[in-house]
Structure formats: C-alpha cells, structure tokens
Amino acid sequence: MLPPETQLIRSLNEVLILAALQPGPKHGYQIAVDIEELSDGYFSFTHGTLYPILHQLEKEGLIDGEWESGGSRRRRKNYVITSAGRSCLRERVAGWWELHDSLSAFVVASAAIRPDVAANQ
What we know:
- By secondary structure, the protein is mainly α.
- It contains 5 helices and 3 strands; from the N terminus they run H-E-H-H-E-E-H-H.
- It has helices spanning about 5-20, 30-40, 45-60, 85-110, 115-120; strands at about 25, 65-70, 75-80.
- A 3-stranded antiparallel β-sheet has the order 1-3-2.
C-alpha cells in the first residue's frame, strides 16, 4: 500500500487531469499547459509524471485516448473524459471539499493559525 502522502498527491493529480478534460478532448501537452495556466503556475506536470497518470486513468476507464494522425505533424493522442471519469471527478471533488472544510475547521478550532492571530504576529 502507498504511503498516505503519495495517495493524496496521486488523487490530486488525477483530479487536476480529469478537471482539465471537462471542457473537451485534449492531448497530453495541452492538459499540462492548461493545468499550469489555470493554477497560475501552482501546479505543473513533467512528461515523467503526466503520461503514466494518463495511461493509468485510461486503463481504469476514466478517460479514453485516441491517436490522431497529424498529416505532416507527429502523431499525438487526444484524451477525453468518460462518463465514469465524470462520476469519479464529482466524487473526488466532493471529497476534496470535505477535506478542505474539515482541515480548515480543525486549524481554526485549534488556534494553530487563526487569521486574526497570524496577522498580529
């Protein structure tokens, strides 16, 4: 079994990719560019991390990939989110919001970092 932090990062990466495919089909490079642009550079992928995740999501039936012949261009694979992928995305986003809300409530309740306290320190 993977360590919890690895599972958390994997889940986050999968949510980012599935969300990036919501508007429509994209090839891998465009997925990475969109994620980086929409997050103002906070999230980014290298080829070494992006493509294994895409292959795994495809294997799990959450996305479909189709090779596109580009004429004079190199062939590239376009990915599209499946209905199972959309369901998975909804579930995972709900889980992330629950985590966010629970963590925020805990931090505020524990006074570890309260906005009014942190501003005065």
